[in-house]
């Protein structure tokens, strides 16, 4: 593993039950076979790292499974680069871009915050011109994503690009607080579908922009693209409802596949 890697020691972990649990995620970048029937999974951590013995693995089209983590390894902590040792049986399941996270629900219990680790991965890929991820991104927006915003009709927050005006929505509180108009104001949580219905008929708004203050996790969606995403939702809704019912059976989640129509 190299001299620079450092193992986490469970006995040094400090438990503080009064501290609020924070969202964090581990995005899979590379996977290697390891000794003793394990996989060596390299990735980057987003958020404050918390060593946990089990995490939720999230992938495309609603994939979600609770996974045991055998060991955490520091690779390059200054750049948030870590590794996990997991059971080799995941070799046929896990792939680049899958997310390990400490939360199994992108929507916080309070409905005042959201967490979108897999969406972050997709946005970064599209911003780096990996357009093969667009279909998955649109499906994620259409059926599985919640966003924060601040509604103040007397002072509506608008983000302008050239002569186009966009309504900003955010994938997390951290992103929303970068907008000065949103600071110290109560936020609301809605699905992307809710936002699209709110603003498609607004003549003064040209579209929606996600995370306007993040270079790699931002995307501006004009109304024609929003209408296309709505078509994706309607096209996949029957399959999506079936998937939700199917995924309730935790023992069968890892076997579920959706025949996604592009």
Distance, first to last CA: 41 Å
CATH names the topology of the largest domain as Trna Endonuclease, Chain: A, domain 1
Describe the strand arrangement of the main beta sheet, using strand numbers.
1-6-7-3-2-8-4-5
Strand percentage lies at 25-35%
What is the CA-atom radius of gyration, in angstroms? 19 Å
Q: Which geometry do the CA atoms define?
A: elongated
Question: What is the CATH class name of the largest domain?
Answer: Alpha Beta
Oligomer: single chain
The CATH homologous superfamily name of the largest domain equals Uncharacterised protein PF11572, DUF3234
Description of the structure:
With 262 residues, the chain is α+β, with helices and mostly antiparallel strands. It folds into 2 domains: 6-101, Translation factors (Elongation Factor Tu (Ef-tu), domain 3), CATH 2.40.30.10; 130-247, Uncharacterised protein PF11572, DUF3234 (Trna Endonuclease, Chain: A, domain 1, 3-Layer(aba) Sandwich). Helices cover 22% and strands 28% of the residues. The protein is built from 5 helices and 14 strands. The protein has helices at 117-127, 134-143, 173-176, 192-199, 223-247; strands at residues 6-7, 24-34, 38-47, 54-58, 64-68, 71-76, 81-87, 99-101, 146-149, 159-161, 164-169, 188-191, 207-210, 219-222. It has an 8-stranded antiparallel beta sheet with strand order 1-6-7-3-2-8-4-5, with helices on one face. Strands 10-11-13-14 form a 4-stranded mixed beta sheet. A hairpin with a 2-residue loop joins strand 10 (159-161) and strand 11.
């Amino acid at each position: 593993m190299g001299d620079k890697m450092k193992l986490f020691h469970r006995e040094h972990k400090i438990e503080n039950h009064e501290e609020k649990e924070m969202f964090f995620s581990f995005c899979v970048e590379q996977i290697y076979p390891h000794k003793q029937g394990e996989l060596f999974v390299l990735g980057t951590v987003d958020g404050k790292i918390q060593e946990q013995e089990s995490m939720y693995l999230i992938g495309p089209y609603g994939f979600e499974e609770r996974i045991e983590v055998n060991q955490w390894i520091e690779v390059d902590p200054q750049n948030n680069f870590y590794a996990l040792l997991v059971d080799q049986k995941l070799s046929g399941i896990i792939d680049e871009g899958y997310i390990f996270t400490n939360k199994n629900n992108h929507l916080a219990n309070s409905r005042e915050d959201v967490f979108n680790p897999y969406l972050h991965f997709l946005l970064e890929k599209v911003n780096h011109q990996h357009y093969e991820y667009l279909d998955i991104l649109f499906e994620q927006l259409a059926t599985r994503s919640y966003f924060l915003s601040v509604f103040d009709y007397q002072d509506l927050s608008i983000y302008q690009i050239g002569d186009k005006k966009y309504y900003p929505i955010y994938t997390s509180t951290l992103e929303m607080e970068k907008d000065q108009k949103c600071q110290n104001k109560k936020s609301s949580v809605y699905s992307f579908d809710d936002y699209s219905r709110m603003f498609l008929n607004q003549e003064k708004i040209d579209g929606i922009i996600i995370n306007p203050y993040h270079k790699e996790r931002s995307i501006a969606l004009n109304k024609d693209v929003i209408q296309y995403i709505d078509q994706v939702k309607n096209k996949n809704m029957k399959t999506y409802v079936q998937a939700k019912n199917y995924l309730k059976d935790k023992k069968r989640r890892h076997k579920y596949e959706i025949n996604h129509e592009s």
